[in-house]
Specification:
32% of the residues lie in helices and 25% in strands. With 391 residues, it is an alpha+beta fold. The strands form 5 sheets. Strands 9, 12, 15, 16, 17, 18 and 19 form a 7-stranded mixed β-sheet that branches.
Amino acid sequence: MSIDVKVPVLPESVSDATVATWHKKPGDTVRRDENLVDLETDKVVLEVPSPVDGVLESINAEPGDVVEANDVLAVVKEGAVNEAKEDKPADDSEQEQPKEQPAKKAEAKQTAESKIDTGSAGPAARKMMKEENIDASQVEGSGRGGRITKPDVQNVANTPMEERVPMSRLRSTIADRMVEAQSTAAMLTSFNEVDLQAVMDIRKKYKDQFQKKHGIKLGLMSFFVKAATEALKQFPIINASLEDKDIVYHRQQNIGIAVATERGLVVPVLRNTAAMGLADIDGAIRDYAEKANSGKLGMEDLQGGTFTITNGGTFGSLMSTPILNMPQSAILGMHTIKERPVVVEGEIVVRPMMYLALTYDHRIIDGKDAVLFLVAIKDMLEDPARILLNL
């Protein structure tokens, strides 16, 4: 019996998807719930599993094709597992073949190498051309009489060839959002620096107890999330967004954490951070990072954010101007921590310092509120007791 493999019901606000990667080809044995193909939407990758055990009969959509919910992606022949070639027991002649494999492999390698035109190359250059699969037509000889030398081949081997690939759905969406932010919002960035000595001391003092009780390391980001949450309460305009001519004030602090993945930047959202403790935040961030890197984030993980924090310091950035995550009105940029000499109570001391950047939409946020918001975060991080006391 042949079973259609269809595009699943797509997440809300997603109208279509792009076929990204097939993990099986026609004729392959498939198992029930085994992932057959990845579908890429604007924000997440969806896996489409086989509905039954069987053999993949046909594929109806190629990589790059745009599909909609309930479109037929492939056909699986149910219960045909034993008919698949890879599942057939090898006969006697097939069992004897491995004894002849080395000779055949050597012969195949020799045949492939003979197809490489080495031209006037010397012995060392000729050997490298065969290893690197480089033809004489690709090399300009610099030796006597145009003879190809080993350095000539090395130059070609080290020269990257041009590759052109279409943008992924996620990368295309990121590009559109960046252009939208640049062309729509009146973005302005304010900077400050924060002394993280107090936070570092707390993490050092309580890290073992914290991990023993909660099963997770006491991270740095959770302090920033809590400080930002309290600051958003004090300055609700930073947590607002602009819709047409209306300013929408959000009663709940939903903070997105920018996560870099191989596919691009995603921003999963921590909802109602005012009700979360440090362990809750650290655990949620860890879970989101794992899901993001394995392509398991759902649309529900990425929606509803009112403010974003991005940490370029993870990659060594000393200072940057983050771009708004539309339709949000502000984004906080963290940067790398550097030990620098600073003056504390008239004394020069070395402290772990970080530059902070707040990019905001000047259409609805005044510079005064933006600067005071940034100062509030700085004050709470330099004296974390303020977070507990809501000061």
